[in-house]
Specification:
Keywords: Iron, Metal-binding, Oxidoreductase. One of its GO terms (molecular function) is oxidoreductase activity. About 25% of the residues lie in helices and about 20% in strands. It is of the alpha+beta class. Strands 1-2-10-7-12-5-4-3 form an eight-stranded mixed β-sheet. The chain binds 2-oxoglutaric acid and fe (ii) ion. 2-oxoglutaric acid binds near residues 188 and 209.
Length: about 325
C-alpha cells in the first residue's frame, strides 16, 4: 500500500441500520482505515452541534481562570492524574521538552441529570481507581463536560462492534471487556506559538494514543493536528466542522498484534489564536489483559507485545508523561 496522503472520511448515517449491505460497507471502510491509516474522520455521528458549543464555552471559562484557581484542582493532588495539568507539565514525546498545552482530565461518572450511581469508574478500576475532581467556582463546567462525555461515550459504544466485525470477530467481542467505561476525557487548550518554533516544544509532541481508540473533537477551522505516514511525512488533519476524528490507540494495536495501527501524531498551534480540542480516550476495562487475538498471530507475525493489563499499561503511560 502507498503511504496515505489524506485521512479517510466515513459517513456514520448507517451505524445503527438493520440493512446488512449498508453495515457491511461501513465495516469495510473502517477495516481499510484501521489497517492502512489508523485514523479516520466520521461525519453524521449524531451528536448535536449545541453540545460542542456548550462544552467549548465552558472550557473557555475554565482555562480563563487565574492560574492559582486552576492549580486548586491540579492533577498532582488526585490519584491517577484526574484534574488540571498546567502548560508544559506533560511531555508526550520523550525527545521533547514539554507540551505547550494545558488540560483537564476526568473519567466516568453518571450523567448529571440522572440520579443514579449504578456504575462508577472507581468501583472496578483497580490500579486506575480515583474519583474526578471539579472546580467548585464553575458548577456549569462539570455539567457541560459530562454532557459531551456521555454523547461521546455512546458513540464509542457503537463503534466497538464495527471494529470487532472488521477483525472478523463476533460483533459482541468487546462487550464483556468494556463494561465499566474506562474512558478518559481530556479538555485541552493550546496557546498559539509564534515565530521560530523549537521542535521540542510544540502543542503536543509526537506520540501514539494509549487506549483502544480516541474520539477527538477539534475546534473547527484551526489547523494544528498532523499524522505521520509510513514515509515519515506529516499529513495535516484539518478541523472540519461537523466531523470528529477517530484514531486507534496502543491497546487495540497490542490486542491485534499491530494488524490495526496506532499511528503517531502531534499538534502545533501556529494559527495565532487559542485552540481548543477534546480527546475521549476509550479504553478497555482496566482489569482486562491485552492478549493478542488468536487470528492476529501466525508464524509470519509472531506476538510482538508482552501481555499486560490495560490498567497497568495506562498507569505506566500516565506516569511517564507527567513524571509524578
Ligand atoms: O489536540 C489534538 O488535536 C490532538 C490531541 C492528542 O493527540 C492527544 O491528546 O492525545
Ligand atoms: Fe493523541
Amino acid at each position: 500500500m502507498a503511504p496515505f496522503k489524506a485521512i479517510p472520511v466515513i459517513d456514520l448515517s448507517d451505524i445503527s441500520s438493520s440493512d446488512s449491505t449498508a453495515r457491511r460497507k461501513l465495516v469495510d471502510e473502517i477495516k481499510h482505515a484501521c489497517t492502512e491509516v489508523g485514523f479516520f474522520y466520521v461525519k453524521n455521528h449524531g451528536i448535536p452541534p449545541e453540545v460542542f458549543q456548550r462544552t467549548l464555552a465552558a472550557m473557555r471559562q475554565f482555562f480563563d481562570l487565574p492560574l492559582n484557581a486552576k492549580l486548586e484542582v491540579e492533577n498532582t493532588k488526585t490519584p491517577n492524574f484526574k484534574g488540571y495539568s498546567p502548560v508544559l507539565s506533560g511531555n508526550n514525546d520523550p525527545n521533547g521538552a514539554g507540551d505547550l498545552q494545558e488540560g483537564f482530565e476526568f473519567g466516568f461518572e453518571p450523567p448529571v441529570d440522572r440520579d443514579s450511581a449504578v456504575e462508577t469508574s472507581t468501583v472496578n478500576d483497580g490500579i486506575m481507581a480515583g474519583a474526578n475532581i471539579w472546580p467548585t467556582q464553575l458548577p456549569g463546567f462539570r455539567v457541560a463536560a459530562l454532557e459531551y462525555y456521555h454523547h461521546a461515550l455512546n458513540l464509542g459504544r457503537l463503534l466497538f462492534p464495527l471494529f470487532a466485525l472488521a477483525l472478523d470477530l463476533p460483533e459482541d467481542f468487546f462487550a464483556d471487556k468494556t463494561k465499566h467505561s474506562a474512558a478518559l476525557m481530556r479538555l485541552l487548550h493550546y496557546p498559539p506559538q509564534f515565530g521560530e518554533v523549537d521542535d521540542r516544544v510544540i502543542g503536543i509532541g509526537a506520540h501514539t494514543d494509549w487506549e483502544c481508540f480516541t474520539i477527538l473533537w477539534q475546534q473547527p477551522g484551526i489547523q494544528a493536528l498532523q499524522v505521520l505516514n509510513s514515509s515519515k511525512e506529516w499529513i495535516d488533519a484539518p478541523a472540519t466542522e461537523g466531523t470528529l476524528v477517530i484514531n486507534l490507540g496502543d491497546e487495540l494495536a497490542r490486542w491485534t498484534n499491530d494488524v490495526f495501527t496506532s499511528t503517531v501524531h502531534r499538534a502545533i498551534n501556529r494559527s495565532g489564536v487559542r485552540r481548543y480540542s477534546i480527546p475521549l480516550f476509550f479504553g478497555t476495562d482496566y482489569d482486562v489483559k491485552l492478549e493478542p487475538i488468536a487470528s492476529c498471530v501466525s508464524a509470519d507475525r509472531p506476538a510482538k507485545y508482552e501481555v499486560i493489563t490495560a490498567g497497568e499499561f495506562i498507569k505506566g503511560r500516565l506516569q511517564a508523561t507527567y513524571g509524578h
